[in-house]
Write a structure and sequence with these properties.
Blueprint: E1 2-3, H1 27-32, E2 47-53, E3 59-65, H2 67-71, E4 75-79, E5 103-104, E6 110-116, H3 119-126, E7 130-135, E8 162-164, H4 167-173, E9 176-184, E10 196-202, E11 205-210, H5 215-226, E12 233-236, H6 252-264, E13 268-271, H7 274-280, E14 287-295, E15 301-312, E16 334-343, H8 357-375, H9 379-385, H10 403-414, E17 426-428, E18 431-443, E19 449-455, E20 461-464, H11 474-486, E21 493-496, H12 513-536, E22 544-546, E23 549-552, E24 555-558, H13 559-562, E25 568-576, H14 579-582, E26 586-598, E27 604-614, H15 621-640, E28 646-647, E29 652-653, E30 671-676, H16 700-712, H17 723-726
Parallel strand pairs: 1-25, 2-13, 11-12, 15-16, 20-21, 27-30
Antiparallel strand pairs: 2-6, 3-5, 3-7, 4-6, 8-16, 9-14, 10-11, 10-13, 14-15, 17-18, 18-26, 19-20, 19-25, 22-23, 23-24, 26-27, 28-29
Amino acid sequence: MEMNSPVGSNALDAQGLVGKPLDRVDGRMKVTGGARYAYEMQQDNVLYGFVVEASIGKGTIRSIDTRAAEKAPGVALVLTHRNAPAQGTGNHREAHPVLTGPQVTRYGQPVAFVIAESFEEARAAAYLVDIKYDRAVGKYALRANLGAARVPRPSDSQPADSAVGDFAGALASAPVQLDVTYATPLQSHAMMEPHATLAMWDGDKLILHTANQMLNQGQQVIATTLKIPVENIRLISPFIGGGFGGKLWVNADAVLAAIAARELKRPVKVALTRQQIFHVTTHRSDTIQRLRLGTDRDGRILAIGHDVFSGNLPSEQTYEGAALQTRTLYAGPNRLTRHRLVPLDIPVASSMRAPGESVGLMALECAMDELAEKLNLDPIELRIRNEPGEDPEQHIPFSSRHLIACMQEGARRFGWDKRNPKPGQIRDGRWLVGMGMAAATRGNPLRLSKAKVRLDSDGLATVRMAMTDIGTGTYTILAQITADMLGLPMERIRVELGDTNFPEAAGSGGSFGSGSSGSALFEACQVLREKLAQLAGMDARTARFANGCIEFEEQSIPLTKLIAGGGIEADGEIRPGRTAQEFSQQSYGAHFAEVGVDEDTGEVRVRRMLGVFTAGRVLNAKTARSQAIGGMVFGVGAALHEGMTLDPRFGYFVNRDLAEYLVPVHADIPAIDAMFLSELDDKSNPLKSKGIGELGICGAGASIGNAVYNACGVRIRNYPITLDKLLSGLPVRA
C-alpha cells in the first residue's frame, strides 16, 4: 500500500482493542528477567572484548606496543590498525570502519581491541597496551570555531536554509522587534542499557545479537563496512533497553566484535562501559541559535528568522535541524531559517530524541514568551494570533492541526488564568513561584515497512517483522492491531520482532516506528481478511471478524474451521506516497509548568507539569501517556540538568558518567500528567495515527524556562538553567 490519498473508514474505526489502555504484553517477561537483551545472549566458547580509546583529541599514533597485553592471562588477540582488515568507508550513517590507520580524529576513538577469555582479563590487558602519540592542534569548541561554519547538505529532503518574502526589510520596518540568542549544550543519550554485541560466524554468515534500533539499516552498514553481501548478515535485537537515537546507527562494538569473531573463529561479546559510551558512540551537538522576530503592534508576526549553528566531525554532514519547526509552527509572510555546520574534532554528533525540535523549541518558544511580554500579550493569545491557515512555507494544507485546542484545554486544566504575568510576584515561603507554557510540535514521517501475519489452525496468529521495541510498547500495539483486524483475543496473538530474517521494517526512531510498522501490519491483516473471506464465500468489505469467527448477517464461521489442517498467511507493505508531499504533517501539543525558585540559593524545583497533545488515533492510551510523560521528564533534564562538559583544550568530555552527567531522578519529578485530545488523521497512514514518541520532549524544556522567568524575573538563554546562572539576577529580599 502506498499513501497516495486519504484513507476511508476501516476496521479500526470500530470500538475495539486499539486505543484501550492495555498492559504491555511483554511486561511480565521484562519484570521477571525473561526478556533477554544483547549482552545477556548466551553462546558456548564465547570470548570477551574491551575497547582501548585514544587519549588525545587529534593527532597520529607514533607507536603502539601490544606485547605485554598479548602475553597477559587469557588474551586471545589484540587488534590494532596494524592487523585489522580493510573496511568500507562512508559517514556514520553509511559505514563504521574501525582501526583503519594511525590517524586519530577524536578523543576516545578506538585504537585497539583486546579479546580474552573473560571480560576482566580483557579489561586488565587493555591497560597494558602502550601507545605513544604525536599530538596535533584540534578544533573542539563550537563557539570558538564559528568562523569555519559551512552550509551542510540537505537533511531528509529538507534544505539547510529556507527563505520566503523579504525578511530583512520586514524586520527593519516592524514596529516591535526581538533579537535574542539561545544556546543549548552537548547532550548524551544516557540510555539505561549500554551498547553491546554478541558476534558469531556460521561459515561466511554473520550473526549479531546487538542493541540497534533500526536493524535493516544496520544490516546495510555492516555489509558496507565489512565488505560482505548484505544477505550474509543477520541482526537480532528483540529487546532494547532504551536508545533515544543513540542506537540508530551501528557503533564500534558491533564492528569490532564481528571482525574479532571472524579472525578467532569463536563468538565474541563486547559491552561498552558507561564511560566509553560518551566518546565511542554518538551525542547531540550543542547549538547556538539566534531568533529574530518582528510584529505589528497587535502581535501579528511580520518577520521570523532562526539561525542555528551546530558542530560535527569534518567528515560528517549531520546537523541539528533546530530551525525546522520554525518553518511551519507560526504564520508570517517574511521568513528566514538557516543552519550552519562547524567542523569539530570531537566524537560524532547525531540524532537524539526529537532531533531539531527538542532544542529548537527551547529557543523559539522562549523567544515567543519574551515577545509576548514585550507586546503585553498573554503568551497563548500571541500564539493564537499567529496560527497559520496552511503551512506558511510549503503553502499546502495541514493534514490535521489542533494546536489551539491543546493550548486552551491545557490552560483550563492547569489554571493558567491564575498566572500573574508580572515576574516575581507569587511567593510560597522562601520560594518564588511562576508558570510557563510552550507549544509542542514534531514531524510525522512514514517509512517503508513490511510485515507477515500467519493464522494457524489452532487459532493462533503470529506477526513477524524486523521492527524493534525500545521500551515504547511496540509489541503491545501490534498485538492490538492484529486482534482487532482478525477478531481474535489478545492472548491468541504472538508478535515476533527484532530479527532481519523477518520482513523489512523502518525500526524505532524519528516517531515513525508505530505508524510505519503498524500500517504494514494493517495491510497484511487486510490481505489475510480477504483470503479468509474468500474461503468463507463472503465479501471482505461487509464481513465482520469477531470472537474468532468471520460473520455476515446470520452466518458465523470459526476461523479455525476455515483453515482446518493447515495455516494461512499474508504479507503487507506500506510506503510513503503523495500525501507526504500534499499535506504538512505534524503532531501538536501544549506544555504547562509551574516552578519554584529559592530566593536565596537560586535552586529551581518543578512543582507540577501538564502536557496536552493531539497525535491522530492513539493506539494504546497507557503506553501513549507513558511516552508523553517520559518525554516531558526528558524536557526537565534538558532545561535544568543535562549538559556534557567539554574540555576545550583536549576535546574531552569531562563528566562521562551518570554521577556527573545529570539526568532527572524521582525527587526532581513532582505531579506530572499528560492527556491526548481525540483526533483522527486520515492523511497520515491507514491507522490514522501520528507519531508520539518524541512529541513529549518538544517544548517541555521551554515551558520550564518560561516558568523560571515568571517566577523570579531572570531570563536564562544558556541551558541548562542552573542556580549559578540565576543567583546574580535574583531580586533582593525586602
